[in-house]
Amino acid sequence: MLDESHKIPQATTKRLPLYYRFLQNFANAGQKRISSQELSEAMKIDSATIRRDFSHLGALGKKGYGYDVQELLAFFRKTLDQDEATNVALIGVGSLGSAFLKYNFHRNHNTKIILAFDTNSPHEGKKISGIDTYHPDLIEEKIKQYGVEVVILTVPSRSAQEVTDRLAQTDIKGILNFTPVRISVPEHIRVQTIDLSVELQTLIYQIKHD
């Protein structure tokens, strides 16, 4: 875990899973050590940014040697709690939600979708892509029963805040919001919003103005 007494910049925290993924690739290729320049070339991130990120984390290499791949991998595994799976629930099994269930993150990450909710599912539940799926009437009950910490929200925009208000009454710690609505939550819940249309428009703008 990161030392909470030392505030890590948000931009750095977003890159942590990427560092872990690329270090796994180098380790799988049998590489023993790596320089920030090699990571830079592989990840397309400026080497100065990488060195600055690592200095925030305290993961410093040796001058003239670079970084020990296995040591860095162990560091990021601990930092990202890779050995502890986080139970995730999905709310809204439409086209996007179905894709999440089919992929499911625990194959490559420390997250695992174990529960889903959809208005077309019966109260007694059914399996969708091997995941227990229930009617949204049971959100509060089942989230507690399954020990869910994080929710992926892929419901229609009109339902986003209503569902969020119900989630606020549970013990979840975070919401990954795929709706375009800026949902309001109490302080104990962290929200990360991914608006696909905004991301696409940003990409198009960057392409045209590059």
Automatic annotation (TrEMBL):
Pfam family, one: Put_DNA-bind_N
Signal peptide segment: none
InterPro entries linked to this entry: CoA-bd (IPR003781), NAD(P)-bd_dom_sf (IPR036291), Rex_bacilli-type (IPR058203), Rex_DNA-bd_C_dom (IPR009718), Tscrpt_rep_Rex (IPR022876), WH-like_DNA-bd_sf (IPR036388), WH_DNA-bd_sf (IPR036390)
Domain CoA-binding: from-to ranges: 81-182
Record carries keyword Cytoplasm: yes
GO cellular component, one term: cytoplasm
MF GO annotations: DNA binding; DNA-binding transcription factor activity
Entry keyword set: Cytoplasm, DNA-binding, NAD, Repressor, Transcription, Transcription regulation
Gene3D superfamilies in the cross-refs: NAD(P)-binding Rossmann-like Domain, Winged helix-like DNA-binding domain superfamily/Winged helix DNA-binding domain
An example Gene Ontology biological process: response to redox state
DNA-binding region: 18-57
Binding-site residues for NAD(+), renumbered to this chain: G92, V93, G94, S95, L96, G97
SUPFAM superfamilies: NAD(P)-binding Rossmann-fold domains (SSF51735), Winged helix' DNA-binding domain (SSF46785)
Compartment(s) where it occurs, according to its Swiss-Prot or TrEMBL record: Cytoplasm
Main location (coarse class): cytoplasm
Tree of life domain: Bacteria
Keyword Transcription: yes
Purpose: Modulates transcription in response to changes in cellular NADH/NAD(+) redox state.
Quaternary state and interactors: Homodimer.
Family: Belongs to the transcriptional regulatory Rex family.
Identification of the protein by name: Redox-sensing transcriptional repressor Rex
Organism: Planococcus rifietoensis
